[in-house]
Amino acid sequence: MKTLQAAIMLGVTQRTVQLNINRYKALGDKIFIHGNTGKIHHDENIEQRKKIVTDIFLNTRIDGENPFENITYPLFTRLLHEIYNIACSKGWVGKLLRAIGYTSPKLRKPAKICEHLYRERKKYAGELVQYRIIASSFFLSSSILFRTMHPVFKQ
Question: Residue 141: pLDDT above 80?
Answer without folding.
Answer: no
